[in-house]
Amino acid sequence: MAEERKRKPMIGLQSDTDWSEYRGVMVVVEQRAGVAKPVSWQLLGEARRLADKLDSPLLALVIGHQVQGLAREAGYHGADRVYVCDSPELASYRTRPYSRVCLYVIREYKPEIVLMGATYAGRDLAGAIATHLPTGLTADSTQLDVDEERLLLASRPAFSEKMLATILCKQFKPQMATARAGVFEALPRDETRSAEVVMVPPQIDPEDISTQVLGFVESLERGNLEDADVIVAGGRGLGGPGAFSLLKELADALGGEVGASRAAVDLGWIGHDHQVGQTGTTVRPRLYIAVGISGAVQHVVGMQNSTYIVAINKDSEAPIFRFANYGIKGDLFQIVPALAQAVRARRSGGLSPEGVLEQVSAAGRGE
Ligand code: FAD
Fold first, then answer.
1. In sequence order, which residues have a C-beta less than 8 Å from that of residue 185 and are 6 or more positions away?
2. CB of 157 sitting under 6 A from ligand 1
3. Based on the number of CB atoms within 10 Å of its own CB, is 64 exposed (0-12), middle (13-18) or buried (19 or more)?
4. Mapping DSSP to helix (H, G, I), strand (E, B) and coil, where does residue 90 land?
5. How far apart are CA 295 and CA 169, in angstroms?
6. What are phi and psi of 211, to 5 degrees?
7. Is the CB of 318 under 6 A from ligand 1?
8. Model-level pTM?
9. CATH topology (fold) of 19-208
10. Which among 232, 246, 261, 365 is the best mutation to test ligand 1's pocket, defined by most ligand atoms within 8 Å of the CB?
């Protein structure tokens, strides 16, 4: 059976294809239960810029079940045309059915650039597609651009993250890349925009449905940093793993997640899933609170796009203060519990914003 499957070819492209027919920048929208991953809209924002530079349409591909709403959302976020493949069999992500749809759309509609989020599913899907196309794939890009020859310039850290390599695929189309979440900015959602919707027939081969997704159980351990609106991150200044419970209290009070510097992760105080930075997750929350983190460049590149950055550090010379909108100088063991308490009091209506500031300032002064 396995041998038979191996011999059965998926849809491929011939290497003598006329590549000049390939036009448009396409983003594959990733969704779970009808909710798009923010990286999809961030990629549409960046892809809009590339498409405008190439004078090409911006395309989106939405795969799933009952995803018409997402097709509209893709339009609100900048897409000119949205390909929609809707089937109960596609409700949950599975590699082979999803890659068949992508391969069909690429062969049929010939986008010159295809972009996906560098998430678990995006990496899996992009890799699966690339093996069936005579083209390359740049994984985990942190910068995207196009040149005057319409070549995609996909840049990513290389050689143990010591340099940024720009990778080109000169001979084949589509040019493909996955890109990290949190690096690019989504366009403001604009409900006056509408995109042309093109329905795509599902490419279901019963042979592909060898696994059934029965449901998802959210991990209690793993933080979801990429999608978090608020992140409270701790570093070596915490002095040990125990202090992360203080950060968790503050994160819970703010409805956020706990992040960490690499130093804290390397010391084994918290899992790598929580690491923010160059070799961790790139984040873009509305609020990032850096606690006992010095502000090394490898950390800052992963969080500098946060809307508001608050730094709590006992060293007034710590570089993190240069990137912070608000800095609190003092001992984190005084400040973090006071801040958590003040946030809870504020949420229950018992404290004014000025009262929050006063409580936290007093804690900073060690009172
Ligand atoms: P430190 O630099 O030791 O800072 C601790 C801070 O805590 C100090 O500023 C101190 O003043 C403060 N502090 C101490 N006690 C208290 C207290 N009681 N109250 C308040 N403040 C206190 N780092 C990352 O974070 N993410 C990455 O992805 C990453 N990738 C890397 C990739 C490469 C190739 C390399 C070479 C390095 C990478 N690093 C990364 C490591 C980075 O260079 C720094 O070493 C690391 O970020 C430092 O972590 P830190 O700020 O927690 O620790």
1. 42, 45, 46, 284, 305
2. no
3. buried
4. helix
5. 36
6. -125, 150
7. yes
8. 0.74
9. Rossmann fold (3.40.50)
10. 261
Query: For 336-349, how does the pLDDT look when each residue is reduced to its tens digit (9 = 90+)?
Result: 999 999 998 887 77
* Residue ranges covered by each domain of the chain: 19-208, 230-364
Q: Which of 302, 295, 300, 328 is nearest to 314 (CA)?
A: 328
Instruction: Report how far Cα 159 is from the mean position of its chain's Cα atoms.
Output: 22
Give domain 230-364's CATH number out of 3.60.21.10, 3.40.50.1220, 3.40.50.300, 3.20.20.60. Answer: 3.40.50.1220
Written as one string, the DSSP assignment of 56-87 is: --EEEEEEESS-HHHHHHHHHTT-SEEEEEE-
Distance CA 315, CA 327 (A): 11
The preferred substitution site among 244, 289, 294, 328 for testing ligand 1, maximizing ligand atoms within 8 Å of CB, is 294
Q: Which of 31, 32, 47, 35 is nearest to 179 (CA)?
A: 47
Residues shown for the chain: 367
230-364 has the same fold as 19-208: yes
Q: Is the CB of 314 under 6 A from ligand 1?
A: yes
Q: What is the pLDDT of residues 168-219, one digit of tens each?
A: 998 889 999 999 888 899 999 999 999 999 999 987 777 777 777 887 776 6
Residue 247 has phi, psi (to 5 degrees) of: -65, -35
